[in-house]
Amino acid sequence: MTEHFSHVVRGSGPGLLLAHGGGGGIEANFGPILDDLARTHTVVGPDYPGSGATPRSDGPLTLDGLADSVVATAVSAGVERFTILGYSLGTAVAVRAATRHPDRVTGLVLTAGFAHPTNQMRLAVDVWRELLDLGNKELLAKYLTFAGVGYGYLNALSPEELEGALAGLAVPEGAPEHVDLVASVDTRAELGRITVPTLVIGTRQDVLVPIGVQRELADGIPGAEFVEIASGHSMQAEARDEWLARIRDFLDR
């Protein structure tokens, strides 16, 4: 059965559906740009199971299930057709939604995305998952900051700022299921079936999802536009204005 997720709805205008990353949430991944997007669009932001106010799943998550549920959440909110803005794991959710619900999806904006985890990504995800099981929040925060933040931004932080960033890193209850799903993603076979306008925004300093992986995602989608921003995986904090400008330019067109 398709679920409706807990969600935010903001603004008015054409539909824009958000698909967040693994171990993230709508506020964590899109909070810095939500108000700006809502100035021109009706923004629907569903939280996956175990994020925000959506109850944690009692079993493994599937890409089909997430894709169907984020689409159903938008439709239940009165938004029948929409562009999907996906981040990290959310790019795979967006691709799957576009191929399963082509009558609903009018465009894709994919940031820090991948079609299939490489060996490098798989090792990173394995460590992430094992740290979640260990329950050592301080060590997990150090690892996710090392892997998730670009070198330019990270190395410019003062010791106090770095300490604050580590202390402020929140991990949602459903992160283990999210991370398990990241490891199993494979949308390579369906990329060629995407017919809507697509923008892929690459994060050039990304350790978690290397830029070559992001380029391959763009190369697999017919006619996709590819741009890069100077940022690691956490471009919300590192390059918020440039990220928003790229999204806005695409949406305006």
Automatic annotation (TrEMBL):
Record-annotated AB hydrolase-1 domain positions: 16-133
Hydrolase keyword on record: yes
Alphabetical keyword list: Hydrolase
Pfam families: Abhydrolase_1
Protein name: Pimeloyl-ACP methyl ester carboxylesterase
Hydrolase listed as a keyword: yes
Top-rank lineage group of the source organism: Bacteria
GO molecular function terms noted in the UniProt entry: hydrolase activity
PANTHER family: AB HYDROLASE SUPERFAMILY PROTEIN YCLE (PTHR43798:SF31), MONOACYLGLYCEROL LIPASE (PTHR43798)
GO annotation, cellular component aspect: membrane
InterPro entries per UniProt: AB_hydrolase_1 (IPR000073), AB_hydrolase_fold (IPR029058), AB_hydrolase_sf (IPR050266)
Signal peptide: none
